[in-house]
Predict the structure.
Amino acid sequence: EQLGVEPAEEAGGDEEEDAVQAMERVEAGETGGSPGAPGPEEPGGLTWLVPEGSSSSRVIVHVDLDCFYAQVEMISNPELKGKPLGVQQKYLVVTCNYEARKLGVKKLMNVRDAKEKCPQLVLVNGEDLTRYREMSYKVTELLEEFSPVVERLGFDENFVDLTEMVEKRLQQLQSDELSALTVSGHVYNNQYINLHDIVHIRLLVGSQIAAEMREAMYNQLGLTGCAGVASNKLLAKLVSGVFKPNQQTVLLPESSQVLIQSLSHVKEMPGIGYKTAKRLEALGISSVLDLQTFSPKILEKELGISVAQRIQKLSFGEDNSPVTPSGPPQSFSEEDSFKKCSSEVEAKSKIEELLASLLNRVCQDGRKPHTIRLIIRRYSSENHCSRESRQCPIPSHVIQKLGTGNCDVMTPMVDILMKLFRNMVNVKMPFHLTLLSVCLCNLKALNTAKKGTIDYYLTPSLSTTSRSGKRSFKMKDTHMEDF
DNA sequence: TGGGGTTAT
DNA sequence: ATAACCC
């Protein structure tokens, strides 16, 4: 697959074949009513196929962009196209394009090792996430145009619940069009499609919508990616990665066991992270089958009922978690890692840098953060991942100044952050930090005034804001419940 | 290992 | 405030 050369064409020759094979399977079949639920055919639609309320089965798509940061960099600088490209953060190649992968570069590879493996590797710095973040939200917004229920996972993955959209398309579908229904992209496990099976039909329509989404991503944003269509998030995510770059795959329910059993270790199951995998290993559980067959009671005792029940369901391919619309972000944070920070003045200047960027971001967002947090990582030979944090409310007079250009909001916020800093770090003793991070969270839309407070009854009047910076107020409408 | 994010406890 | 998860 030549990324970006053939616009949104499926990769590999077998893609065409899949569609052809699917057609042949379809044509071999009958086109009559569903054997399980035969009913009168209504004019103008296939509503007879979909007994109301009886179908709890969902259609979910997982959309996963190909080496996202590298794609964004190649769009920013087209001269990079065709060359092996890595995106560097500090001394790590965090991601790279497929040219680089062919030459042996892996994600999260040390720059030294990467250059050794691939001396022609071109590196661009990707420590500033601004352009990646902006492109990421453009993708989410594009997907939200198809259906508003879009859940982000990191910057480069999205889940979309297509159930309703598929239902609508089926209602529009004429019965004579059913026999011509085809899959878009690969069918996992090369499974046979049964057009008498309403679940198959719905997933096929889902695959067509997924193809339209990828086409729109390419045409409108110049981005390629993979998609997986299945009946829940777990399976959609697992199946999206089966054919890799710029291809899509649909999973029919009869092949879901094949899919999850294809995982060689429980750690590969999304939802089972490093810690849980270690604890499972201690119990002698390493394969998906091990987890499926392990005593639920003992598992609950070891991991707690919540985790135990959830991951054991995952091991069967069951995942009833909804696609939760992400909406605007819950928090904004900026972090910087370094070899060593051991003085307060050094920390202060780094904190100022982080905060300045954050204020720009939060200003563009429009909402106001009500909480500020400082996060540090202390140097230590072992236990590298652990962080400490302190947070506090942002004083209301500071919140009000946010977004008003000429007011100095930096000074009071840096003062707060340094108080949090000294609360965590005894600056009279030697210290060694390897990371500083500032987070603005508890975001609220403007003026979320609470009942019973003055602000609830008074609203700022933009038109009468005086030159002196004082604000004038007018009474809000009151309601009976106010009293 | 980087520079982000989320939810649960 | 931390710990787990995700990318």
About this structure: The CA atoms of residues 43 and 331 of chain A lie 51 Å apart. Residues 198-221 of chain A form the longest helix (24 residues). The longest strand of chain A covers residues 433-444.
